[in-house]
Recover the amino acids of this structure.
């Protein structure tokens, strides 16, 4: 349909300028100093939704950062698509590795470089612009609602309660989300499974103050050595998590299902090359795609303690800490896993130290069916613009709120993302190819058309 | 001798003011930004030595920070005491735990609070003031030389070459050092042994950039998990270091020697209480005093990697690092131990990561005899002012340069220190009791008198 390509071509630069305005707001949800930026980003979204053609848009308070809601109801009898996205972004450390400032978007080699360029400002904003396109060209086939939150990167702690409060307002037929990646530009895919997450922080305290390592070393338990030992025991020599009960609720896939998964294209040598690693690593008995797709994992996300500056300081630190998170697969409950972790960690800690364990956030895994109208519409839309049938894939990532949507609103979510693995989300030099941004805007209107068609069939 | 007490009483306030002037210079040797402060501290010492009565004082360049040299030769035929000290100090992290700014000395409850208050500005400056006292009261019994260096806290990397260059200038009969502690105000002691040190930094690199822990977690070796595992294996369940060859050169003490050591007063319950620890910890089969006095140890001094800020960031870090140091006992060679550590660490690292090991600094251990004139003079001087015979003790700390003095200059060092364990050297809120400062100044002149007496006997 030429009008789609034409509209995008005419408004190409403006779309980018508007996205850049959003990106320039450093809305890092995990750092409390950025509170005012959260409000600015929310207001920016409200304005964008009204300008794009919403009948109504509001910044609605929650117990945490507010949620932006917008809607255009063309006919209450028609289906309604609820677009979900988030305006918050991850922190930017280590800042020194960025080639351009993270909140000053820059286009280099056809990619937008900035924190949030993909996750999720770039991807969510495609929906605002595709919606504008449909409104201005009088081709919007269904009702549309937008729900853009500001705490996704910290696990959406306040969204569940907010959903309860606004159930009526959020009535819809499906939730549409762009916050995931394609297997590749030439390997389009739609994410049908997400891992859950249990994110913990542990603090090990030895002596009540930093000590001179010469005067005390060898006679007092060093919390950094103890922490290393505790972390080391959390996985065995087969890279299996040792927490008792950790695997109890994991659903093992059948041989047939695993054979089906093994058909997804995957080049382990290219994978190793792109990460510059000598060997891959993971749970014995599973492939790389299985390790991230259908198996839970445990990773240290951060570790710190003692003297970390230049040179040598002979200190025996008082404390050492780590952030440790576990990716979970569907059927594992993150509350239960957090509890098992805490009990285990406290049990294995020696009496020479004090240990504190805090659950920072969590979310359940999710599996989406591929035989519903919305999935079929998404698959056909992607096929229309990419020229290839998308592969349904289980992603290793987590969008904890997705399973909550099903629980609270009774709605399935379609994860039609347009990112690439090379977008470096959560990393320095996050980026989003311009081609993906515009291709996303082009694909979304087809989704609406096909969705209405399948819903009315 | 009343004139000593009288002189100190008359100049009490000025002594403190002059020390404070030195303390206010933030001469942190491990942080290169402080280079100009190193020169300022050296010049301050030069001026102090000239004002105190040196015939000559100079700031003499080295390959690193300069060394301050001063001397007063009253008669070339008389013995010469070479005073060694250092004008550099440790970093001040974690700065937020200081109750007063580290470089603004403040007297609270009879203690000077500041970085360097004890180690080693306060202790070294006692020698400048005791020297002034002897000059002004015409009681200086021997020749005196001062050598105050600026790189002790980073392992004196350039002093050995400097010693070679200035051997003639440094000719003396003994080296006198105040950079150690008393067992307690009521338990005077003189340090007769020091541990050596091998201080390493390790860096573990996994993927070439920080990754999203959901998309990659479980399939790529996490360098922070790997580092934890490597550190964990460096000590066994008996807290013995597992590096092959580590204990080869350790001299085991005889049962008699250990029985003698066991007579030193030590209250394990008070020790635990003062550190607020539930249990002590260390190598099986040795007491706490043995663990720090005659046994080597291995401690993580710092560890860092990944996201260490507020909240949760789901990153699989590219790198994780640690500073790991080993305290060594006499006869262990720090070069050999550093090499064994490096070889071992590289050998145990899995092929899923790259590992870099750097030796940051090192020094040999030292044992001083207790039957030489200088030790006997020091013991009698301490007994004169404290009223109790000092106990000879092996300290767990390291002053790496002490063994180098013996090797390069053929001189023994007497470690007549006046600090207390509660002085929190290398920690926040370092302090030095005024009583110790003035008692040190009072004790030093007796050392000179008795030293001449024993040398001429």
């Amino acid at each position: 349909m030429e009008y789609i390509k034409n509209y995008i071509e005419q408004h190409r630069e403006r779309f980018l300028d508007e996205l850049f305005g959003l990106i320039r707001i450093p809305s890092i949800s995990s750092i409390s100093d950025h509170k005012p930026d959260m409000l600015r980003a929310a207001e920016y979204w409200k304005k964008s939704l009204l300008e794009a053609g919403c009948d109504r848009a509001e910044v609605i308070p929650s117990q945490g950062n507010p949620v932006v809601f917008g809607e255009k109801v063309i006919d209450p009898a028609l289906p309604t698509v609820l677009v979900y996205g988030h305006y918050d972004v991850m922190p930017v450390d280590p800042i020194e590795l960025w080639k351009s400032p993270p909140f000053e978007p820059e286009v280099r080699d056809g990619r937008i470089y900035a924190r949030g360029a993909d996750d999720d400002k770039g991807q969510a904003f495609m929906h605002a612009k595709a919606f504008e396109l449909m409104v201005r060209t009088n081709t919007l086939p269904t009702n549309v609602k937008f729900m853009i939150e500001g705490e996704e990167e910290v696990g959406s702690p306040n969204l569940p309660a907010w959903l309860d409060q606004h159930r009526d307002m959020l009535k819809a037929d499906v939730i549409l989300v762009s916050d995931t990646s394609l297997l590749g530009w030439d390997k389009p895919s739609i994410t049908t499974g997400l891992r859950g997450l249990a994110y913990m922080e542990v603090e090990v305290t030895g002596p009540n103050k930093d000590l001179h390592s010469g005067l005390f070393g060898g006679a007092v338990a060093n919390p950094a050595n103890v922490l290393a030992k505790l972390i080391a025991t959390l996985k065995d020599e087969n890279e299996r998590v040792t927490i008792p009960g950790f695997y109890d609720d994991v659903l093992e896939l059948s041989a047939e299902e695993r054979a089906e998964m093994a058909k997804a294209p995957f080049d382990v040598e290219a994978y190793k090359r792109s990460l510059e690693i000598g060997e891959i690593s993971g749970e014995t008995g599973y492939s790389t795609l299985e390790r991230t797709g259908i198996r839970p994992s445990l990773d240290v996300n951060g570790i710190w303690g003692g003297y970390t500056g230049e040179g040598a300081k002979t200190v025996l630190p008082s404390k050492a800490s780590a952030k440790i998170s576990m990716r979970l697969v569907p059927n594992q409950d993150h509350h239960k896993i957090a509890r098992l972790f805490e009990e285990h960690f406290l049990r294995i800690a020696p009496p020479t130290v004090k240990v504190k364990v805090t659950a920072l956030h969590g979310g359940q895994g999710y599996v989406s069916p591929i035989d519903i109208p919305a999935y079929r519409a998404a698959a056909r839309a992607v096929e229309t613009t990419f020229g290839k049938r998308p592969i349904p894939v289980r992603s290793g990532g987590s969008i904890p709120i997705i399973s909550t949507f099903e629980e609270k609103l009774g709605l399935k979510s379609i994860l039609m993302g347009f990112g690439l693995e090379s977008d470096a989300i959560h990393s320095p030099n996050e980026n989003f190819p311009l081609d993906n941004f515009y291709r996303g805007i082009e694909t979304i209107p087809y989704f609406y058309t096909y969705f209405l068609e399948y819903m009315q069939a």
